[in-house]
Amino acid sequence: MTPTDADPDILWLETADSTNSVLRRQISGLDNLSIIAAREQTAGRGQGSHTWFATPGENLTFSILYRFENEFALAAADAILITQVTTLALRDYLLGHGVETRIKWPNDIWAGDRKICGILIENSLTGGFIRESIVGIGLNINETGWPEDLPNPVSLRELTGKTFDIRQELPRVQKEIRRRFGLLASPDGRKSLQEEFGKYMFRLREEPK
Q1: Considering only Cβ atoms within 10 Å of each terminal Cβ, which end of the chain, N or C, has fewer?
Q2: Domain tally for the chain?
Q3: Which CATH number covers residue 53?
Q4: Tell me: the pLDDT tens digits for 85-129?
């Protein structure tokens, strides 16, 4: 495990079972908003029992640690703010590459009618407050070789016609997450997250409200 030259809070692994699991094992030694990324996940997880497909070295598969202390204290009842911070930051990143996206409830990112990103959130609570959150993110960057059983995937490369260096792209994603996370420090910031999330969020017809 080695930090990048650009940011000591990004640690890259060649291979991991899942970055959420690795981060959890390392959590006591990590700062807030630290990232563990892997070129390959052997047991990458999606929502529920689903796995996350990614060709090694072609996409971003990483986990980020959120700590909720002092002005960032977060009641368990406000856990949706974790989703709002993360999804809006990813939307910001993709918009920076000219890709307009929406947020499919609760925490997928879609470009048009195709999924470009999935998020897995695991919270640790103390009393009625969230102490820490491990947020796993799978972001399709250069993928083109999709399995036939995936219904609607798409990658940034397919949308833009460009090939990207994933090690250069991750700090750009991290920058957007840090900016959005900072909004949690004030009531106005939290309100803006909620309002913007509502603007870009949608549900499939069969999903309950």
Answers
A1: C
A2: 1
A3: 3.30.930.10
A4: 999 999 999 999 999 999 999 899 999 999 999 999 999 999 999
Considering the domain boundaries, does residue 145 fall inside one? Answer: yes
Provide the domain limits for residue 16: 2-202
pLDDT tens-digit profile of 120-172?
A: 999 999 999 999 999 999 999 999 988 888 889 999 999 999 999 999 999 99
User: Which distant-in-sequence residues (6+ apart) come within 8 Å of 165 by Cβ?
Assistant: none
Amino acid residing at 161: G
For 1-5, the CB contacts below 8 A with 24+ separation are 1/36, 4/167, 4/170, 4/171
CA distance 52 to 187: 35
Would residue 83 count as lying in a domain? yes
Whether 209 maps to a domain, the answer reads no
Paired strand residues for 36:
11, 63
Residue 163 counted as domain residue: yes
